[in-house]
From TrEMBL:
One of its GO terms (cellular component) is membrane. Keywords: Membrane, Transmembrane, Transmembrane helix. The chain crosses the membrane at residues 88-109, 130-148, 168-191, 236-254. It comes from the Eukaryota. PANTHER family: PEROXISOMAL MEMBRANE PROTEIN 2, PEROXISOMAL MEMBRANE PROTEIN 2, PXMP2 MPV17. It is found in: Membrane. Its main location: membrane. It is a multi-pass membrane protein. This is Peroxisomal membrane protein MPV17. Belongs to the peroxisomal membrane protein PXMP2/4 family.
Amino acid sequence: MEGNNTNSGIVIDEESLLLFRQQVNDDEKYYALYSQDSYLSSTAATDTVSASSIDEEEKYDTVVDNHNDGCLKRLWEAYYGALLTYPLLVKSLTAFVLLGFADVIAQCFERIRDSHNNSSAEEAFNLYRVARFGFFGLAGAPWTHYYYGWLDTVLPPTQNPWTWTTAIKVVIDQFLQAPALLAVMIMGMALMEGRGISGVTVDMENQYVEALIKNWELWIPATVVNIAFVKPDLRVLYDNLVFFFWTIFLSMLLNQAPDAP
């Protein structure tokens, strides 16, 4: 059958019209499929780029972590090498820095405590006090160095940490050496503050027993670990690290106000 177009005079048969419509439908389907494929390809490319970016970030983080670990390792190796080469100097300087910094922390805690107690008189930061504790670390490290050497000579270390040798060393350290060292420290601090014999007497009467009891609470277990498990050339370093925390308490005790509870 045929259909006439009266406006243009063009005659289009029905079969051609059906073929034209079929071609249009095919083109629309192709365009839709093409658009979908393009979208999927674009999404896949985006996902690939995102995954690649994540991988690069993870690789960067890994490199940074390894770099930091490498820096810490090199610092430790340099410190340990200096410790073996110049043991007295390195131990003394380490104690000087740690004990001085411990007093800095103690003074910060005191300021916080005073602010909570509504104290109106805030004292200036006492650098002389920091220097006194640092000096005690500088002067005390050689004693600790030779003391541990003597102790290991008299009672050689054992492979098994849980022996009578370890127990005897702990008893000597905490019931002979520690009380004497604490007394020297309290008296020395009073003298360096310029308070003379009367200041020494007051501090020993008011603070020695309390400080000694607190000393045993911290140092008996710490000394067991030190003698039983720490390498001999690292014992003074271990002592200095524990002494850092001990000095924070001791500094606050020795420098508390006379009417403090």
